[in-house]
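Hello,

Our lab assistant flagged a job as stuck in the queue for most of the afternoon. It eventually completed. Since we weren't sure the result was trustworthy after the delay, we are filing this so someone can double-check. Below is the sequence as submitted and the structure that was eventually returned. Let us know if re-running is recommended.
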Amino acid sequence: MGQLYITMKKLLLIILIFSLQFTVSQDLNVTKDRTLWNDFTYDMGNVFGGIGHAYSRPFHWQGNDWANFGYMVAGTGLLFTIDDEVDEWANGFRDDVPQFIKDYGNSYGNPDNNYMLTGAVYLTGLFAKDEKLRRTGVLLISSATASGFFQQVAKRLVGRARPKSGESSFTFDPSFGFNRIFNYDSFPSGHAMLAFTNAYVIAKQFKNPWIKAGIYTVGSIPGFVRVIDRFHWISDVAFSTVLSIFIVESIDRYLDKKYAEKYNDNTKAVSWNLTFAPNRIGVVLQF
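-- returned structure --
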């Protein structure tokens, strides 16, 4: 608890410093040549601004936003009812999944590796003076940070048992003191959230649906592997994947007001279509 308190103090101090610097630079209204430091401080201000924007969106939701949230909750609830069955069904092919796939899935969604990738993208754009790449890096960093902080808090508050604990998917042991309990931190999936966040941001750079599908597939591997290795239930991964889309879209709209460069002319929107047929129920997510 003490370490978390110190970390939060440092984070708040960093946010305050960047906010003050950004505000002062606006008030001075001085025209100056662009420098790496100017770009860096501007971008970091947008990172924290994007995180705050994402967290504040529920207070501004309207009809369609609440409907999408309802679909996400309902879908998670439906998968929740079959979590144990899916985990048991996966026993039939766990050992058939190639080890390199498992290694990739478990390492790519790791926060350290994630920030190495996002940081590399941003720094490349910064030193190359490429605004589009800088914006991509800012979107990657802010989305990963927003989703990462959320899932760390949620894991402790929900306290859901992991499949490998031997308990059922209906077993919970929440820790309101913010102490993470080993094997009771299944919901949501941080690996799935970080990996698909990256995939969704990168896919925005392309219009070709086949390229997008390929990137989404690669970004879905960590979530699949975490289910196969019994770190998470299928509902954990599904919820994390959809939530990562919402977070990215929210921050990307915020960045539209901060950067002139756009990825493409497509309207940023997430829509759902429910389909019903005999012996079948489906959800189509369009983005």
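-- support follow-up --
The delay was a queue issue, not a problem with the job. The result is valid. The two ends are 39 Å apart (CA to CA). The chain has ten helices and two strands.
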